[in-house]
Amino acid sequence: MVDLLQIIGTYMQDVFVRNLDVWVVVGVVAQAFFTARFAVQWIASERAGRSVIPTAFWLLSLAGGAMLLIYALHRKDPVFVAGQTFGFFIYLRNVYFVIRESRV
After folding, report:
1. Is residue 75 within 8 Å of residue 56, measured between CB atoms?
2. Which of 15, 23, 50, 69 ranks highest by number of CB atoms within 10 Å?
3. pLDDT truncated to tens, each residue of the chain (104 aa)?
4. Is residue 83 domain-resident?
């Protein structure tokens, strides 16, 4: 058990300390935006007593998705790039719908 904890501790230090650079910070901030959108959606739904997707959800999705796409491009991860590119356009389209509806 002690060996397992030491292996996990060494791994965590490699991942979160030794590899820390500006790109990791960008990735963490992007993931924070992405995570915040779920909290925003949950709170809005609880207040309404029904499932609601507020504008802030789409704005956080767009910001987080754009930042994660930039991060994925920098890391040259084809799976991550493909996933974030597809999502980014969905978020962009939904923000467009929100803007269009607000003009009516």
Report:
1. no
2. 69
3. 789 999 999 988 887 788 788 888 888 898 898 889 989 999 999 999 999 999 999 999 999 999 999 999 999 988 889 989 999 999 999 999 999 988 87
4. yes
Dihedral angle of Cα 30, 31, 33, 38, to the nearest 10 degrees: 160
Q: Measuring CA to CA, which residue among 52, 55, 60, 71 is closest to residue 36? A: 60
Count of domains observed in the chain:
1
d(CA 74, CA 68): 10
Q: Which domain holds residue 41?
A: 21-103
Write the burial class of residue 10 (CB in 10 Å: 0-12 exposed, 13-18 middle, 19+ buried).
exposed
Exposure of 13 in the CB half-sphere (CA atoms within 13 A):
6
Q: Which among 94, 68, 61 has a CA at the least distance from the CA of 82?
A: 68
